[in-house]
Amino acid sequence: MKAARFDYLRPADRAGATVALADGDARPMAGGQSLGPMLNLRLARPGCVVDISRLPELRGFEERPAGILFGAALTHAEFEDGAVPDPTPGFLAQVARGIAYRAVRNRGTIGGSLAHADPAADWPTALAALGAHVHLAGPAGTRELPVEAFILGAFETALVPGEIITGVFVPRRSGQARFGYSKSCRKVGEFAEAMCAVLVDPESGTRRLAIGATEARQVVIADAAAALSNPGGVDDLLRAAGLATDPAAFKLRREIARRAIAALESESMPEGQSA
């Protein structure tokens, strides 16, 4: 199947993109790894596609004392390859390396992944665990939201008409920080059936945990000390989040969460592609 007819615009700057997207029938596109298939399947039928992949404001990064603000149009591959700095001890490259296939990572963008808000995508869960914030710009100006507040549900975000993601701010983590990330896929490259990310940074007292691949948005525990110290803490967490109703799914999520926690003690992230 081919996409329905649509107009195509490539504005020169962010201001031009905001104007073009003010039309409620327009959709932004960066890497096109999510919107492209939706267009071809006619699940999305915008009157206009606004290409923001080459906007200078979205292709750079800004070093700040507390972290790094990454442009939304930076690709997964650029994080994987170390083409941009990492304010963590290598956590961003680890996550990027496990996203789909290299062809997807060459084009897919960090901002596009968040805007699409697929519960089984890697960046929403990992960035929520890392305490990242999403920077937005639109007709009403600019604003920023924590990842867990930006994503409202499955494929649902806080974006308003005419607004785009301009960047993602990732806080700096100390050299003592540890990150555990695990997911279960039927085969490499497929979307995850269960996913968990855990961050422990003794220097700042941070203990965050995020569970992805749910039926809604990610479950984020800002203070996961109880789940990390109590052998039955993962079970209690899943039950409290309403993720224990299906016995098979509960067992899989429990195992993946335990693997992510166990990975905190490892110097490198396990592949974790299958349970």
UniProtKB/TrEMBL annotation:
List the InterPro entries hit by this protein, alphabetically.
Answer: Diverse_Substr_Oxidored, FAD-bd_PCMH, FAD-bd_PCMH-like_sf, FAD-bd_PCMH_sub1, FAD-bd_PCMH_sub2, Mopterin_DH_FAD-bd
PROSITE patterns the UniProt entry points to: FAD_PCMH
Please provide, alphabetically and separated by semicolons, the GO molecular function terms listed in this UniProt record: FAD binding; oxidoreductase activity
UniProt keyword Cell cycle present: no
Q: Which domain of life is it from?
A: Bacteria
Q: Where is the FAD-binding PCMH-type domain?
A: 1-175
One Pfam annotation, family name?
FAD_binding_5
Keyword set, alphabetical order:
FAD, Flavoprotein, Oxidoreductase
- Protein name, please? Carbon-monoxide dehydrogenase medium subunit
